[in-house]
Amino acid sequence: MTRAAELASSREGLLDHEAARPYRRSLGSDRSSSELDLDELPPPRSRGGWSPSPSRGKKSNKEKEKEKGYPGLPKAKRKGGLLRKTTCLLIMSILLGGLLGLIAMALWVWRKAIPLDGQSPPWYPSPKGGTLAPWEESYKKAAAMVSKMSLPEKVNITTGTGWSQDLCVGNTAPANGVGFPPLCLQDGPLGIRFADHATAWPAGITVGATWNKDLIYKRGRALGLEHRLKGVNVLLGPSMGPLGRMPAGGRNWEGFGPDPVLQGIASAQTIKGIQDEGVMATAKHYVANEQEHFRQANEWLTPHAISSNIDDRALHEVYLWPFADSIRVGVASVMCSYNMVNNSYACGNSKLLNGILKDELGFQGFVQSDWLAQRSGVASALAGLDMTMPGDGLYWMDGDSLFGPHLTRSVLNGSLPVERLDDMATRVVAAWYQLGQDDKARWPNIPPEGDGRPNFSSWTNDKVGKIHHGSDDPTTAVVNQFIDVQGQGKDFHGRLAQQVAAEGTILVKNENNVLPLDPKGWTEQYQPHGTGKYKVGVFGEDAGSNPNGPNDCPDRACNVGTLASGWGSGAVEFPYLVPPIEALESTFDLGSVDITATLTNDLPKNCYSGQDLCLVFINSDAGEGYIQWNGITDRNDLYPQKGGDELVKKVATECLQTVVVVHAVGPVVLERWIDLPNVKAVILANLPGEESGNAIADVLFGRVDATGRLPYTVGKSMSEYGPGGQVMYKPNGLAPQQDFKEGLLIDYRHFDKQSITPRYEFGFGLSYTTFTFSNLALTTLKPKSPFPSPRPEGTILPPTYSTDIPDPSSALFPKIFWKLHKRIYPYIDSTKEIKTGSYPYPTGYNDQQVPSPAGGGEGGNPSLYEEHILVSIDLKNTGPRTGKQVVQVYVSFPEDVIDSSTGSKIEFPVRVLRGFEKVELAAGDTTRVEVRLTRRDLSYWSVGYQNWVIPDGDIVVAVGASSRDLPLSGTW
């Protein structure tokens, strides 16, 4: 296939994946202006800074003696004759020859797996930041600062100092000459990783289940405040990738659910909250990072990371959607992911970073790598990477960055244009100004002028510790000040965390209104018997605590006790964790209720008989790929873990009123017991964070209405999610290939298209009251037209600087300088290192690129966000108590749509979520609810026009309580 044909077909859809699997080879870190071949390098250590070593068993004395006896030779020959020596040499020669042959074969196969170019088309040069009005003033300030920076200072602020070299998980060095401070980058999306006295918030999937925009914003604001008070400049969250294509994906729980609109709105609200506190948020992981197996080169013994092979339309309408929403609200940073996309590494994919992120979506902040996701030096900088994290190169703590001094050399020898480095540095500084981090009241100077550095250490819990933990520097200082950032009194963040967890709790079954419970046990429906005590049995390990404490396992990588978080870099230290049993015992009236707690999944016989009510707690856990627990990273199936199904069946066999609570990282298959006659109620409580027990008690006892709604579909089996919903557990090549052939049809869209009835549909959830929908009105706010307005003419010019290459002597190490072991510096040792010559720029580097017609503003063409339809309905609370309902708006596109640019028929999902509002109403009250739909909501992505298009024909707008409960509909 010619390059032109390849580019054309990549716009139309997936390429022929039976052909050879190309991959964007690194063009090097320019250590000596030569190409760096990734296939010549040994595997890196895993993200935690360690990796298990293969065991080397010691031989027993008997085995040693046996070897000394040379078994197999006649006794006469066992004393070292010529025969023995000749035979040994022959055997060694055969083994050596075989080994060399295997190595040669392996190298041949390996090289065959990595053709020169990927399938993602080139897009160069990297667009400069500073062209959009919301960032204009910040770029003016940044330009004034960057223009005064030396070459090493520019490199300093775009390169991490190395894993564990400073106090945070990611750190940049300062530009002291101009007063730009070092930056602290810290996980993450659920709270402050490795920190003390900070809130362990409900996970993203729980937040998505609230469907409450205001509550999501408040959580984001509190997250930002806590990070700021701990001295964190850049919060590594929220996570919107993985989106959740595969329900068993190990990190789905960090995001908000597999629908792009729900994910996008929740991400945007979180970012607004974080950044309103002056902390830079990070939209991650960009993009199509949908499973943990094979996510990194070598992590799963494959030399290359998995390639997510995705067509242009699915990329835009599904996976990019929440990133566009994040950029629309001004997110400061985007983190590129480990995986390849169309066989080009995401952090070196010029089409993704330059063409889509910076041109089409108008991103004005800086692109940072995930930790060691950078796989090349100059090539990734040209492709749009602005900052490398944590600074190390291809191995953990190697001290040999792909940027650092190599970036300095690249500028000095002419292989990296000066203007590219200037833009990289300017984007970082502009983001710093944009978030007001030059405000000394909020962000004091660093020592010795102030106390503005982070007041915690990621590497020790001691008050006094090493300042540069990963180096040979013995200097110590107070590194943990144990500052409590959780708030106090009415502002205590635990209150908000409890509210989020309660609203993210979903009631999916409630026969005979067994819930809510009465603290006294007895109700009008259930009268006293015998001794008069109401007998409650609480069963399951998930109802109790980890006996060794909630932080027993590193990064929460085990499933012991109640499950309140998944594991990995997105997890945090629990300041405390309220287990369900504690909250139940404090809520039930023990004068009239007798509680028996059996906090194990292995029940003794008959412990569940004779109970009036049985509460069973089960769970399912997963996490990030650098840790495994019981062979799990991505879940191996969707069933409850640790015998949860059997536990429910045993209890429900004897107990006439069984209520099941499930804590899980995502959907769980409930089919083994959901229809048992004694299972009266089921609650999906997701991952509730530190206030787990209090939140579930709020819902069980009706202190709050059951208002959570499913942010995913609960199917009856793993297979129901279709081929695209299956994790790849075994590699299909040295560069594993995962084809997103399902396109737009993930989660409920797949179920709808295949007419599969799920156990519980997307958006579903019961309440303790009832609601009706009526009087739908669709008001046209702007007439229908196929295309958005032309891309706005750019009137703001990006900063310009001198393009002269600096004097190499300006980049030399200072004469008096103490180098720390494995710390990354921007300096070079000698000017003799700089050798100029011809640099092999990537294919397509000099091609003229046409700016995307879908671009022109933050998040894309501003016309895409113009409102076209006002959807309004009457919502009435017809039940006995105050409650909340989520009004959900879905769009169905016309049939038989033909794209005039390609002549192809455009297929659509049956319906797609396009907006929602959560409304609280007192019993008997009615209110008018409005949802506004934009041009983007009503459009599809045309691969021919490379633009969003509203199709001809009637668009159906449906409103209701879930994706399959839509009583109102109208056409536009």
Task: Describe what this molecule looks like in 3D.
This protein has 19 helices and 29 strands. The protein is of the alpha/beta class and 972 residues long. The strands form 8 sheets. It has a 6-stranded mixed sheet with strand order 1-2-3-4-6-9. The protein has a 6-stranded mixed sheet with strand order 12-17-16-15-13-14, with helices on both faces. The longest helix is centred in the N-terminal third of the chain and has 31 residues. The two termini are 44 Å apart. The N terminus is likely disordered.
Short description:
The protein is an alpha/beta fold and 972 residues long. It is 22% helix and 15% strand. A hairpin with a 2-residue loop joins strand 7 (340-341) and strand 8.
Chain-wise SSE layout:
Layout: H1 3-12, H2 61-68, H3 82-112, H4 136-146, H5 151-156, E1 170-171, E2 184-186, H6 204-210, H7 213-229, E3 234-235, H8 260-275, E4 280-286, E5 307-309, H9 312-319, H10 321-328, E6 333-336, E7 340-341, E8 344-345, H11 350-360, E9 366-369, H12 378-383, H13 404-412, H14 418-434, E10 464-466, E11 476-478, H15 493-503, E12 506-510, E13 534-539, H16 580-587, E14 593-598, E15 613-620, H17 644-654, E16 658-664, E17 679-686, H18 692-700, E18 737-739, H19 748-753, E19 771-780, E20 867-877, E21 883-892, E22 897-898, E23 905-906, E24 912-921, E25 926-934, E26 940-942, E27 947-949, E28 956-960, E29 968-971
Parallel strand pairs: 2-3, 3-4, 4-6, 5-7, 5-18, 6-9, 13-14, 13-15, 15-16, 16-17
Antiparallel strand pairs: 1-2, 7-8, 10-11, 12-17, 19-20, 20-25, 21-24, 21-28, 22-23, 26-27, 28-29
Helix pairs in contact: 4-14, 6-15, 7-8, 7-15, 8-10, 15-18, 16-18
Pathway: Glycan metabolism; cellulose degradation
Region (Disordered): 1-77
Subcellular location: Cell membrane
